[in-house]
Amino acid sequence: MPRSVRCSALSASLLAEQVLNGLQLGVMLFLMAAGLTLVFGVMGLINLAHGSLYMVGAFACAATAAATGSFWLGLAASLAAAAAAGALVEIAVLRRLYARDHLDQVLATFALILMFSEATRWLFGSFPLYLDVPRSLAGAVELPFGIRYPLYRLMIIGVGLAVALGLFWLIGRTRLGVRIRAGEADREMIAALGVDIARLYTLVFALGAALAGLAGALVGTLQSVQVGMGEPVLILAFVVIVIGGIGSIKGALVGALLVGVTDTLGRALLPSALGAFMEPSGATAVGSAIASMLIYVLMALVLVVRPAGLFGARA
Amino acid sequence: MIPERWLNVALAAGLLAVPLLAVAAGETFTVTLATKVAILGLAGAGLNLALGYGGLVSFGHAAFFGLGGYAAGILASHGIVSMPAIWPVAIATGGLAALAIGALSLRTTGVYFIMTTLAFGQMVYYFAVSWPAYGGEDGLPIYVRNRFSGLDTLDPIQFFALAYVLLLAALALTARIAASRFGLALAGARQNPARLQAVGIRRYGIALTAFVISGAITGLAGALYADLNRFVSPAMLSWQTSGELLVFVILGGTGRLWGPVAGAALYVTLEHWLGGVSDYWRFLLGLLLLGVVLFARGGVIGLLSGPPRHG
Amino acid sequence: MAEPVLELCGLVKRFGALAATDDVTLDLRVGEIHGLIGPNGAGKSTLVRQITGEITPDAGHVRFRGRELTGLDVAARAQRGLARSFQVSSVAPELSVLQNVALAVQGASGRTYRFWRPALADAALTNPARAHVAAAGLAGREAVPAEALAHGERRRLEIAMALALEPRAFLLDEPMAGLGAEGSTELGRLLARLKATAPILLIEHDMDAVVSLCDRVSVLVLGRVIATGSVDQIRADPAVQAAYLGTRA
To answer: Cα separation of A170 and A168, whole Å?
Structure first.
């Protein structure tokens, strides 16, 4: 009896905090998925090495912050490094693959993962780097209903939502957006319009890369910065895209928030929820195992109901 | 150009000759490497049926490979140590997992299919990591290699013989299937799905059947691989393993019968040699792969025998 | 009057505000070639795709051999004897001529899930396939991969595959496209023989072919059938002259 009372007293603020954590994971996944979906929508390229760009951003931020003592310089470096790496890879390798089938794209970008990972390991070694939260964002803030939440994580949510708004504006309202949408519709038409399509593609790719680098840098303070950190996030971003529908920024945002919140709440709540039915240690084991599968179950449901994804245009 | 038939014979003979010579020279490690090639070639042969013959770019075959491995490990931990008893379970596990994952993933095509199989593969991986009963993250050792009556499976060359025979059987099966009515439909599904529907054959059923057979073969390879290492861990289920399986098939020659064996042989050799040259050998491997994709499409077999012969 | 094999009754298909198919009613009768003509954008392909089952009409029925087809997918309609050729040649490029046709024979027979016996050693498959290859005028080319065929030959391969379905009706979507005068004449002769096997709904741009081959013609303009009748009736129809022939002049 006392146990259930304690649970219910905790649950309101605990739930709110977990929802915020879910949103924070969600916007981070959005930064990844937006770049992937943009690159696929415009160039028809599936880029497995997008996770490597995330890693490049995290390492650039950690190394710059360690050298200069400024997280903000690190953040700027992460954007620049990821965008530069993205543009370089696009120009040197990927533009040869736009007309190829998906299998060639998968293999080539898998090869790029190996090269990025090994090069990073060679430069920085196998041990993880750590990145501190900038002092101005340390600590927690009081939110309404007596919830205390780390300011830094709140900032990530804010940045993610701001980027989402910026992307909607970019695609919907600017000349570049018109070109991007035209590129999705018809590559020959856009070439006929006199747009330098090669430069447009490099630009779009660098933009996607910068978003991935930003995500890596922001998350670098919450986790350790290490080789191989990008691919689990990449696969989550794929889940987001399958759920949201490929080529759609709106789909990426909705899918990312859905995945972020589902995953976080599942991990936080399932083990204790199962505790109501079975003994605690078993509940923790079963609960965490099921929680780890929850977003894939969500993806399976979407595949059954809407194989094209929630916002997918594909029939 | 060497006719593909002769190249296949040379591959089969070479894969048999190397470990036999190694035994004569007392180089047991080389026998183990050859066994690894045979087993990874078997896993790749499974993937090749879906990828090469059916055009299904699965980035989730590690799930079937790893589940086959866990079938061997878990049965062994419960005292079932006879390979002829373990193999059907591994085959069924791989096949059933492929049925579940394929039934969902094949509702999509193209790049969605790649992402979906990758994601479901990762799901199985995370499940294995977080499920503590059979070692979780740490994996599950197989203390004594499982048995096959009449053979000493701990003797490297005898274990190699088992793997080699199973590889030959799987390749014979693949060749039969490719030439059969089903194989014709599978080729149609890869080359022109709309046309396949228009002659009255549903792509979904064809693709799913191929995917299940593919998963079953890869599951069998997983059981052998677990026995080779006498250890099974979530690493067998990881996305890197899925990527490596794809690499075997493509490096050797997609849709070529012996392509996965050629690819696995090249990969294992490179891993062994480059690994000795540099700690960062995977960088060189990536560079090589990139070169193959950009300049040498068709893999080893394509390079040596030219494009596939139509018949 | 010969009985109808294929009947379209009040078919409607809208894409947003545009009615791509607007209350179309027409039939295809035993022994005839029924031409379907109309300017570009008249909705011919959309209509064909509703007959084959690739898209679902918003209203109306498609009846085939007296049975409603609504709810059946492409494969099921093909198995009932509705054979189509594609606007753009569509065969399995790496398979040989014989393999392509054998695939169609196999689709018609419904026995696809056979894993062991080589397909090309199966007389139940290869005998009819060879006969259809010969009937389409491709004898001697059995072993050639489809991708190595000339354009006209690929059209013939399409016809051979359609024949292999033992069809009760053919839907031929611009089979003359890109053939040139001589090729068109040859293919025309083949079609004139084919209509005894099963009636043909012929979607065609080549007016000479339509005039020389078709027993009846329907004219589709902006999704509507504005006239159906013999070639002479259609020529004399003022609505057709205004809407269609006028645009060609």
So the answer is: 6
